[in-house]
Amino acid sequence: MPETSPPVSMDFIRTIIAEDLKNNKNEGRVVTRFPPEPNGYLHIGHAKSICLNFGIALEHEGGTCHLRFDDTNPTKEETEYVESIMSDVRWLGFDWGEHLYYASDYFDQLYEYSVQLIKKDKAYVCDLNADEIREYRGTLTTPGKESPFRTRSVAENLDLFQRMRAGEFENGSRVLRAKIDMASPNLNMRDPVLYRILHMPHHRTGNKWCIYPMYDFTHCLSDSIEGITHSLCTLEFEDHRPLYDWVLDELDVDCHPQQIEFARLNLSYTVMSKRKLLELVAGGYVTGWDDPRMPTLSGLRRRGYTTEAIRDFCDRIGIAKRDSTVDLALLEYCIREDLNKRAPRVMAVLRPLRVVIDNYPEDRSEELDAVNNPEDSSMGTRKIPFSRVLYIEQDDFMEDPPKKFYRLAPGREVRLRYAYFIKCMDVVKDKETGQVIELHCTYDPDTRGGDAPDGRKVKATLHWVSADHAVEAEVRLYDHLFKTPDPDAGKEGMDFKTHLNPKSLEIISSAKLEPGLQGATPGSRYQFERLGYFCVDLKDSTKNRLVFNRTATLRDTWVKIAKSQG
Ligand code: ATP
Ligand code: MG
Fold it and tell me: E strand or H helix at 192, and its extent?
């Protein structure tokens, strides 16, 4: 990583690292790592960890951040996940350079380390089965019981462990355990399992191994092998830190990284565990890991989120030591802030109502000037066609308007954005349903692109699209995937899926867009005036059939929430 960048803000982790550098700990090196298990797609919580680890490396000259796949569990891991993780980290704008590692590359070394522990009489082969191990472990209030196999001789342990590796025993028949303390108040220290037998091919090592190391044993040693200086992880690993340190101390390794825990990101209206996200994918509750309603990075990307918005979000939430839940509205605020600056404005009508301008000649049309982004004059202007038949939004008209409804109604005049004042003269209804199907209006030719010369005012400006020129598109409107702010908080045994929002997706099959959107490229983002931010779907949109996803509405709830929180 060539350049350094200033820190976002000094959180407690950055303060510790600054102090270490001052004391010349680790010879002034800063090496962090992001260690995903390739058993699912990355989500917005991972983005917090990625921004922290890669961010800290970038803030120090010579700092590096490793991408390490923590691939010790062959039952759940797949190459598809490895690839998606790499592309998501890159999309967030980070680069691991040469530092791409796999815990599975250390299987030989890890095996040697376990042999060392056995030789020191600090590990033993145990024949208790999983249930028995659990039973012997005791509870928070009762001490554990020592395994009858704990006193095996070093020679016997070496022999059995070697035969475990050779494939002589069945799954679950034996494990290698650390010999620590069955009375420890910390359950993780009650002779934790280091290796288990699993006759199953691994996505990278194939059939070479039938014993696989456990997370706690693998993680600290992988950190040490790679010369990590600060091993940053989420709070649930706080109770594992004594084991992290025990393994490295007993093996007397050269590099003993410091584990520091921080609070994981929780977001309202969202579940974040990969297990649960996989359940949604596998059960068909969403269309895939990249469904735009998913909190995955690929889902957010498809929804129209930008790298900048997600990094801004991660900066704003900061790093703390105590768990909390961040309001989803903050994430939406960040994407609005970014797209407000960069998204060109266009006009689109989602639920079209036909408007005929009776005094506009049938064979005429004209090009009107429209501003691409009032926030950024460098984005210029464009021409939009106007003609006798237009579409406006159905809910911009009310036949019998209540007070405070200032938009179109019989006898009322409004402005059409960038065009003319129009006045509603007549309403055509479907004979059977009574539904309004067409409005007849007149326009005032003297109001083109501006105000009325006689100074009369209108109270509303509507967006519209010329019917003959309109491009059709499918538009997908998204709402929260869950109905409740904390879908994880159900009573014991309650399924989080019962909180799914049945209205999280609404499909509008024939929206009318201004003609400039013909052929819009997948991934391009727009503000549909008065409606929200939309982007062309990365997967389903084609030249012949445009598909848009609503990224966010224009309504900002975050400012209100922030105010009420003081
Ligand atoms: P999950 O619980 O979603 O399955 P995990 O912790 O098992 O997540 P890993 O692939 O092991 O997922 O995580 C890789 C890194 O990302 C770890 O260092 C982990 O602490 C961090 N991480 C995972 N979820 C979050 C989160 N919600 N907030 C911050 N960091 C997270
Ligand atoms: Mg995990």
Answer: none
